[in-house]
Design a protein that fits this description.
Layout lengths: L6 H28 L5 E10 L5 E10 L9 H11 L2 H21 L6 E5 L2 H6 L2 H12 L6 E6 H6 L1 H13 L3 E7 L16 E4 L1 H5 L5 H16 L3 E4 L5 H9 L4 E2 L10 H13 L1
Parallel strand pairs: 2-3, 3-4, 4-5, 5-6, 6-7, 7-8
Antiparallel strand pairs: 1-2, 1-8
Bound molecules: ligand C2E and magnesium ion (MG) (3 copies).
Length: 280
């Protein structure tokens, strides 16, 4: 900001920066205390098998409900958590809670349900995530074969060698790995060949215009075909309409998540859904 635009303008700018960093600090403090105050919770979104309509799994999605304040969306606090390193203990809480939930559903007599957990860049690249996952599997009694870990394409490409090694360790434990938000980064499908990946999740941005935009339709089609040629399972994210679902069905997409089936819900909602499916 140039001082030439006038004294007032300049001081407004400074005041504004101050307000921004005060809010930033307040958020950071609140986020720091949130774990201890048990302000985090997980919602779960069903992952549906397109051919059969069965719920084949759920994705755990983090929510923050600060005391006396409305729910904060992940996009409004995960970047800050990532920046401050708080994502590591928070991510650890997410992993443990999702694993414990998986075990709890089983103990309540439900059929096994695959649980997917999102890993942040810092969690995946910065700490010994394979060792942490192993410790939490042992602590919770969760079966690794029913756990999927999601990482984004950009995380893979930040340090491909380290990522490949970590993924090999996780895959050897029986954990499945999925690439989240596929298509938003710059990696080609071919470059994914070196990683032990089980599923590819097509980013919501390609799905939303599928039935209007011929380019998006072509991209989705190509991703499904190539992924299948590499023996990868394909999941479409953010499916909102029956037209989108019909397109995905017709083009052989394996699974989907989206508001057209269910929003992310509390654990009890998933239990009700699974019981209804069993009774049907
Ligand atoms: P994601 O992993 O790609 O999760 C999918 C997001 O799409 C979720 O947003 C979900 O609520 C939303 N979604 C699902 N179906 C639809 C739909 O039909 N339409 C629309 N418009 N949206 C849909 P959410 O829960 O706000 O999470 C946003 C992102 O925050 C996630 O994207 C993930 O990157 C991150 N995140 C969430 N939980 C965690 C976590 O426990 N750890 C880490 N590291 N990141 C997380
Ligand atoms: Mg995800
Ligand atoms: Mg995604
Ligand atoms: Mg996303």
């Amino acid at each position: 900001q140039s001082k030439g635009t006038g004294g007032n303008h300049y001081s407004f700018y400074v005041a504004d920066m101050g307000a921004q960093s005060v809010e930033h600090l307040r958020m950071e403090g609140a986020l720091q205390r949130a774990l201890q105050r048990q302000e985090f919770l997980l919602h779960y979104q069903p992952v549906v098998d397109i051919a059969t309509g069965n719920v084949s799994g759920v994705e755990a999605l983090l929510r923050w409900k600060p005391h006396g304040r409305p729910m904060v969306a992940p996009s409004d606090f995960i970047p800050l958590a990532e920046e401050t390193g708080l994502i590591v203990p928070i991510g650890e809480w997410v992993l443990e809670t999702a694993m414990a939930q998986q075990v709890a559903w089983l103990r309540r007599g439900l059929p096994p349900v695959r649980v997917s957990v999102n890993l942040s860049a810092r969690q995946f690249l910065g700490q010994d995530v394979a060792q942490r996952v192993a410790a939490l599997l042992a602590k919770t009694g969760c079966d690794p074969r029913w756990l999927t870990l999601e990482i984004t394409e950009s995380v893979l490409m930040q340090n491909p060698a380290a990522a490949a090694e970590t993924m090999a360790r996780l895959a050897n434990m029986g954990v499945q790995l999925a690439i989240d938000d596929f298509g938003t980064g710059y990696s080609s499908l071919a470059s994914l060949k070196r990683f032990p990946i089980h599923s590819l999740k097509i980013d919501r941005s390609f799905v939303s215009d599928l039935t209007q935009d011929a380019d998006d339709a072509a991209i989705v089609n190509a991703v499904i075909a190539l992924a299948h040629s590499m023996k990868l399972n394909v999941i479409a994210e953010g499916v909102e309409t029956s037209e989108q679902l019909a397109f995905l069905h017709e083009h052989g997409c394996d699974q989907m998540q989206g508001y057209c089936f269910s929003r992310p819900v509390e654990p009890q909602g998933i239990e009700a859904l699974l019981r209804a499916a069993e009774a049907a």
